[in-house]
Amino acid sequence: xxxxxxxxxxxxxxxxxxxxxxxxxxxxxxxxxxxxxxxxxxxxxxxxxxxxxxxxxxxxxxxxxxxxxxxxxxxxxxxxxxxxxxxxxxxxxxxxxxxxxxxxxxxxxxxxxxxxxxxxxxxxxxxxxxxxxxx
Length: 135
Description:
By secondary structure, the protein is mostly helical. Helix content is 84%, strand content 0%.
């Protein structure tokens, strides 16, 4: 039987794996100074697979357990992560603007890193807020 706790834990793990993949892509892009440190489609496909697996597990859990897993606590963690990830994403613009003007990072590399860092910020912040909220 899939419980709401199992569904929440599974969602947290899938968000963490996807967020860490996005973060790894960005870090490797910046370290290697190339926009494609590994195939560009991996973070996106992993996100789609994660979403499909979470949806499938929520369907298997039943309506009541799924509603409990996506309760007010989930909504609060989600909104908090969205708000903080928004500001992190905005801070990336001047940082990467400076890096590009000093020719430390080329535009394609900055574009790839910023895109995946934006996704990683939300996913990892949500994972963190969800984990500390469950204690």
